[in-house]
Description:
The chain has 314 residues and is mainly beta.
Amino acid sequence: MRELIRLNPVFTHNIWGGTRLREVFGYDVRGSGIGECWGVAAHEKGDCTVASGRFGGLSLSQLWNGHRELFGGLCGSRFPLLIKIIDAKSRLSIQVHPDDAYAAAHENGASGKTECWYILDCPKDARLVIGHRAQTAEELSDMISGGRWDELIREVPVKKGDFLQIEPGTVHAIMGGVLILETQQNSDVTYRVYDYDRTVNGQKRPLHIAKCLDVITVPAAPAEESVICAAPKDGDGPVTLIACSHYRVFLLPVHGYMCWEQTYPFLAVSVTEGSGTLNGEPLKKGDHLIVPFGYGRMEFAGEMELIASTVNGD
Ligand code: ZN
């Protein structure tokens, strides 16, 4: 039987980051302003290494390039997904991502970015920015150039366990206090709409207004279409949170025991709560691993919540 591939995450420090990745998830990472834990990543800005076993020490990129059999022989020059835990102590900039066609044409052949968020924790009455209120491209341009942010930006209420799909062209921002697990296309192409006039070392971070106006969807889709569900927690099997053309994401609530067959090219698995075992191997909150192609039957035991993802099969 193929072995589980445990990954060492990589971390980023950001002006908006906090300390919950160390204090709540127990990661050994110093300092404050720890914004992101890249749990499953094979990107030039962060490449996880395999923690142990036959492939120990290899980066996920090396594994993807040299051992495609572990991923069901999928095509593509890079591992398709990027999975992060994001701790927003203060709010992130308001941003938007291009789709594949725009990124290919304007960003040196990079992928676009579709992403989704599972809310791990947030304050009571938390909100996120999803979409905007402009009705036409002209109104969008006027509101941005006039700095009419309160009129433009649309906020939606969220709670722990909510799941949101962020299509390319959707204006979005994570607000302070929200802790999320993000599953996304393996891309880092982000256009900043507004950064609340914050400065870093006396400088404002650059905005990308022209590209934002190119890619923002007008009018925005209704907010209800982004907030997919408050995920059920009491089921006895994996729950599909979303299946889109880029990924398929599952919630796995394990209460005692759960059996699931690995029938996908690979499964990227992150433990978001609790502890237990997978086929006898210990798992705990904050662990990230890949269950390779052909692994077979997965027997989970313990009290855990996991998020798993794979490419969409179509
Ligand atoms: Zn984003």
